[in-house]
Structure formats: C-alpha cells, structure tokens
Amino acid sequence: MQYLSRRLTMESQRPRKDSSDSVVIAARQRERLLDATERLAAELGFSATSIERISKEARVSTVSFYEHFADKEECFLAAFDRAVEDARARLAAAVPTAAPWPDQIREGLRALLALVAEHPNRARMCLVEAPVDGAALRARYEAMLDVAAPKLREGRALDPGAGALAESLEEATIGGLAFLLQQRLRAGAGDGVEEMLPQLLDIALSPYLGPREALGYAGAARGV
After folding, report:
1. In whole angstroms, how far apart are CA 21 and each of 3, 14, 34, 71?
2. Dihedral through CA 52, CA 53, CA 59, CA 60, nearest 10?
3. In this predicted model, what pLDDT tens digit does every residue of 34-43 receive, in sequence order?
4. Which of 157, 207, 154, 156 is CA-nearest to residue 177?
5. Which of 50, 113, 188, 190 could make an SS bond with 120 (beta carbons 3.0 to 4.6 A apart)?
6. What are phi and psi of 61, to 5 degrees?
7. Confidence of residue 4 (pLDDT cuts 50, 70, 90)
C-alpha cells in the first residue's frame, strides 16, 4: 500500500505534456505522413503503397497513422488536396490579374512548370498516379483540371469568331496540357520541364489569338 501511494505521488508530480505540445506533435506527424505518401506514390504508385510503407517512411507508428486517417484512400486524398491547395496559392500569387489575358496565361503556366520542377514527386502524384487509381482520386483530378477552365475561357472575349469555338474547347485544351506534362513526368523527373513553356503557351493561346500571334507569345517566352 505504501508502494502504491508513493507511485501515485510520483505520477502526480511528473511533468505532463501541455495539450498544445500534443497538437504540434500530431500536426508534424500528419505532415510527415503526407510527405511520405507523396514520395511513395511517385516511386511505387498508389496501389503498391501500403499503410505500413507510409508509416515506416514517415517514422510514425501504424497506430498513429489511424489516428490521422481512416484508411489508405483518405491519406491519399489528403495528400492530393494539400498539393492542389498549395499549387493554387502559388499560381494566384504569380499571376498578375491586372495584366492582359495572354500574359496571365503565360505567367500561370510559368509558375506551374516551376512548381513541377521544384516538386516532381508531388507533380507525379497529382498528374500521373491520381487519374488511374480509383474513382475518388480520379474525381479529384478532374475537379483540379476543371478549376482552370474559366480562366482559359476568358480568351473567347479576344476572338471575334468565338461563337464557332466548341463548347468543350477549354476542357479539351487543359486535358491536352495535362497529358503533355504526364508524358514528361513518366519519362523522368521534373528536370528541364520549364523548357515546355513555349509549347504549352502556344497550345493554350492559339484558339483565341490565332496561330501567328500565339506563336509570337511562345517565341517571346522561349527567349525569357
């Protein structure tokens, strides 16, 4: 009984972790899990990436994994959403909204390619793995592309013949740009991806400005 009393006294005197410390630790664990998911998804693909692999890569126990995510798919979706939110913030900061529309498209594509070069694993996860791994990720991928369509559609105001353009033009153009990036990422890392700017810019602008003017913008981008 005396031993138990002393033990309880010692426990009561032991410093306890502040709840704010627990929140910080949990947040760091979650970020490590998402970082690990990006790396492994890029290297192995989503289907070959297990919870055990993610936990080991993140240096987090599988018990802690389930404290953050219900299952593997929820973790993948969270990693995808984080990547897209970060990209949107970077693009919003990079695009001068007061600039002419073609300049906005150029700077948006330039910022996108810089992101791909800076975070090739993240880009591969979002552009290469997400479209082929499950309905939920595929839906997230398609929603990501759809967000860009309204900005591209603004180019119709510059084209006197815009009424003749297909209603699905913007979606098709964005899908084509994504396909070219996918091909580049499948061929390797993000090295040299920024060299694609003139090609992508020409594809994005040609339907609205015409081939000649779009080629001028692309040529100017090549010279930057």
Report:
1. 31, 16, 20, 25
2. -30
3. 999 999 999 9
4. 207
5. 190
6. -70, 155
7. very low
Residue type, 224: V
Q: Given pLDDT bands bounded at 50, 70 and 90, which one contains residue 125? A: very high
Q: Which amino acid is at 93?
A: A
The residue type found at 142 is E
CA–CA separation, 217 and 110 (whole Å) = 13
Which candidate, 45, 32, 131, 145, places its Cα nearest to that of 78? Answer: 32
Contact 52, 31 (CB under 8 A): no
Q: Is 96 helix (H, G, I), strand (E, B) or coil?
A: coil
Residue 151 backbone phi and psi in degrees, to 5 = -65, -40
Contact (CB, 8 A) for 90 and 115: yes
The pair of three-digit structure tokens given for residue 148, joined into one six-digit string = 């860009």
CB environment 177-198: b (16+ within 10 A), e (fewer): bbeebbebbeeeebeebeebbb
Angle at CA 203, nearest 5°, toward 221 and 116? 65
Of 145, 126, 141, the residue nearest 37 (C-alpha): 126
For residues 65 and 36, is the Cβ–Cβ distance under 8 A?
no
